[in-house]
Amino acid sequence: MADPSLEVCPDFDGPVYANICGDIQRATGQTQEAVVTCLIQSWTDGHNQRVNDWNLVREQEAAEAAEVEQARAAQEEEARIQREVEAEKEKAEVEKKKPKMNSFDETVSVGDSIFPRPSQYATQKLNNFDYIELWYFSLDGCKEVLCTARSVADDFGLTRVDDQLTIRPAYAFKASKSAIADHDLPFLTFLRAKNLFLMQLSKAKWPQSHIDALSLFFWHLENHPIRNNSEIGDTVILHYASRVCLDWHDRLKRDEGFNIAIINETLLCAINEELWDRIRSKTLTAVRLSSN
């Protein structure tokens, strides 16, 4: 539809409208001037109505366009705010995961003693609440950390920490070839290693109830009467500790945990008999071989 404001009033007094004007004159008895005036007025009224309708439609279209533009601008603003919120959140997450150096007390010196440090492999096992042999917390296990770190300083691997890939020394993922099962440790080494092991549990954020249970477990074993009443008492204790600790971890993984601090005397006696049977069997074998 064309803009009606651009319309021009026809020349009703001209030759184009002569016949129409003549018909109106004969029908109404009006003069030529009156007929022309009437036609001009009729056209003007229609013209003004068309202009008003046109302007009304344009105003409605403009209002709708403004509403659409306002909605689009609001959506863009909302999207911009959401992007900024997400960007700030990502920035906060990145900052949160960045390593931070804690402050220090300027009035405090290093302690009188420094405890041995277990390997990253052992530490990671504790952080994952996994079973780990006590050898890793012995002096030999801690000494190997220094030697291994120097010998494979350029050997790295990838690991996932807090949903991010992190480069770490390869030895941090590997079990030591020198590791010794708990039941094969010298008893004194076993006692010393469990002390560092218990200390590391707190650093690994283990539940205090679990730490307390393990502390009682080792205390009961260290002070068990079988150590004084049997020639192989220490060996029995080592085998009991080795088997029970592994079973405890396995059952915790299956949500079937038991109180490890409660010593099962029946199991301990069974292990004692088993070890004596081995000794007797070896003795008989040795006797047969010597007699032959």
Structure report:
By secondary structure, the chain is mainly alpha-helical. The protein has helices spanning 18-28, 32-97, 120-127, 139-151, 187-203, 208-222, 226-229, 233-253, 265-291; strands at residues 156-161, 164-169. Strands 1-2 form a two-stranded antiparallel ribbon. The longest helix has 66 residues, at 32-97. The N and C termini lie far apart (125 Å). 14% of the residues are buried.
Number of strands: 2
In whole angstroms, how far apart are the ends? 125 Å
Tell me the strand order in the biggest sheet.
1-2
Main beta-sheet strand count, sense and barrel state: 2 strands, antiparallel
Number of domains: 2
The topology string of helices and strands comes to HHHHEEHHHHH
Q: Please bin the fraction of helical residues.
A: 55-70%
Please tell me how large the radius of gyration is. Answer: 48 Å
As residue ranges, the low-confidence spans are none
Derived from helix and strand composition plus strand pairing, the structural class reads: mainly alpha
Q: Which overall shape is indicated by the principal axes computed on the Cα atoms?
A: rod-shaped
**Mean model confidence by pLDDT:** 88
Total helix count?
A: 9
Per DSSP, what share of the residues sits in E-state strands of 2 or more residues? under 5%
Keywords: Coiled coil
Secondary-structure blueprint of this entry?
Elements: H1 18-28, H2 32-97, H3 120-127, H4 139-151, E1 156-161, E2 164-169, H5 187-203, H6 208-222, H7 226-229, H8 233-253, H9 265-291
Antiparallel strand pairs: 1-2
